[in-house]
# Entry
Amino acid sequence: MSHVVRIGMLGCGTVGQGVVGILHETAGTIERATGHRLEIAKVLVRDLQADRPGLDRGVLTTDVEDILGDDRIDIIIEVMGGVEPTREWLLRALGHGTSVVTANKQLLARHGPELLAAAEEGGSELRFEASVCAAIPVIKVLREALLAAEIESVMGIVNGTTNYILSEMRRSGMSYGDALRQAQDLGYAEADPTEDVGGGDAAAKMAILSSIAFHTRVLIDDVPYSGIDALQSDDVDIAHELGFVMKLLGIARLVDGAVSVRVEPALVPGDHPLASVGGADNAVLLESSMVRQIMLEGPGAGGTETASAVVSDVLSIMGSRPGSFLAGALADAGRPMAPEGSLESAFYVRLEVADQPGVLARVSSVLGESDVSILTVLQRGEGESARLVMILHRAPEGRVRQAIGRLADMPEVREQPVLITVVGSGEAPR
Amino acid sequence: MSHVVRIGMLGCGTVGQGVVGILHETAGTIERATGHRLEIAKVLVRDLQADRPGLDRGVLTTDVEDILGDDRIDIIIEVMGGVEPTREWLLRALGHGTSVVTANKQLLARHGPELLAAAEEGGSELRFEASVCAAIPVIKVLREALLAAEIESVMGIVNGTTNYILSEMRRSGMSYGDALRQAQDLGYAEADPTEDVGGGDAAAKMAILSSIAFHTRVLIDDVPYSGIDALQSDDVDIAHELGFVMKLLGIARLVDGAVSVRVEPALVPGDHPLASVGGADNAVLLESSMVRQIMLEGPGAGGTETASAVVSDVLSIMGSRPGSFLAGALADAGRPMAPEGSLESAFYVRLEVADQPGVLARVSSVLGESDVSILTVLQRGEGESARLVMILHRAPEGRVRQAIGRLADMPEVREQPVLITVVGSGEAPR
# Structure
């Protein structure tokens, strides 16, 4: 028996449309996992005429009362942003028992405690995974998995724009200005990048994360921040020479029971887990004496990624029963096992061969006959024998093994060939 | 009003004692988060006489009936290991409504579906975070946060022993045999390392992870595996030369709806997120088109770490109400904000100085007077001015800023000094 859970959405931009798409796509999983069916009952929009794939025009409204005043709505998804009137609307919803999922970091970093208190009073739930690091489930991990882990430090790369800019400055020696322009061209930075490059975005996220990690009130005004806009390229280069990597870091620590939170450009040793977080990725490193260091890494932005976090919160509120769901899914082998050799992969091959002219030609012709092609080859003579190391282009494993079997039968091949899977395309990193 | 939740423990070795310790230490947090008080009611042990800190002798028993037959016990924590009679005991408990938390990967990889079905039938819960990667909350993330994320691939370094050995082979050029002996000396490998180095341990974990990620039955017998014991040092070195890193990987993928899972030594490009997972760390990389790549990294073993995962599962079963807990914790500023400048850190300092004899001596004497000491110094002349870059030992920020202020006042210092936080001790990585 399946009960219908009715959703009201405030806003329907990129994230909102992503939510609609995911809810459609995963309706079956959601129903099996929660026992409930989701229905998007009403969506607050500015323009009733704009095309919104997957949504009936009948659910659109420009009047927020159609959502706040409808007590058949079980969960409100807030993806409109802004502090006011959003705060007032959400307080009202939470206060009379409607649970809320929001992606609004500025609102939470300013009024999170007030909203949580309203939820407590109204017997509703407030969830906000999407407000920090998109689909990286750092809030759920802190609120639930590590609730009793006595976290002592939260260190994070929580802004993707600045991480992209710093990674490019380091990788290609670009100036800050050029890297920023490139980030803007690629859509990693906005036309007015102040909020990102100045550190304000990261400060809001660190206020939220440190509140949850340390179980105490931290608001955005408690978080001093500086950005990467005043950074000198020279310092990035010198730090690199010395073995450090420049990152815009959120650093939150318990110091003798007091809370210290800040955002600033900082240097990370090259072998530190945060040093290798490249591109526009985000990562949060959580430390406690109980769990040592746990790091969560992934894309910190993106419409679908953020929408996925929203949907995850909706499932938490609906009370998914993961055990029951798994019991059902594992009752039989729902999916077949893939036939052996079907997986496609790049490969490393090492051959010890007789050092005769034409061996490489014969080896590559045998591979070619099996439709296996060579990406990289490394040949080294060692007296009368030679070593041939190849990286093979991606191909189904069965076909590659067959080809290697034929190589093993060649009289010039002196030992059993070594075959090792290579993750990715087989291209060596730059 | 606080209700008492009664715990029965099966086994009390390193992990069990860790659980007892954490439950004592975090009793207050647990009571606030769940509304319930935990009581360790009975503990099954082999030897009643051994000393077990934090446990009353009165709760110890050698008779499992004292636990299985006591219907006042709400949750059983299984940390005794082994497949039989553990399986039979847990089936019985789950079947008559007692929830179970277990760290037993071999049991789950063989009989997980049967145990989940028993829980479903008995209306109890089965949780097993500690069975894979200790405190890294990968199971909770897969079961809950990414339940509807349509995971397509799970790739993981899920065995710490082999990761330690491979990392050492790469770092120091050691042979496999030497690295294994070193791992044994340091307690990272057991006297009989077969289960770890042969890949069997990783295969059990991959069976569990892929079941949950792909919502289908995968048992250990479905997972072909090979280990690092037959690996040639030559291949590790050549791969490194080519820009790849050797890892013992669990690789699970959906291929046209079918499941492919295996464990094998594989090559990872040097800039891949898994490449930088060093030492005995574990990491799991989850991929889907919805969330792109999310990686969780941390220690994959350890008594306290594993115990922390067990406690986290107990909290999940007790039904912690993270919203209420946070609302309470954030109602006021429970912890003070640390006074500015109190945080201790290493620092990077860049000074542009006049290139005169004795400048470095004067700079270091000014720093010394403020009890700030220099770890590394880099001096470069550029015509009549010179650049002085220093890494300072860890010291309270306020004291360092004061010292830098005094440097700024020196007539030889030509520009405002640059001061940047350095994460860690300030030592450059090897």
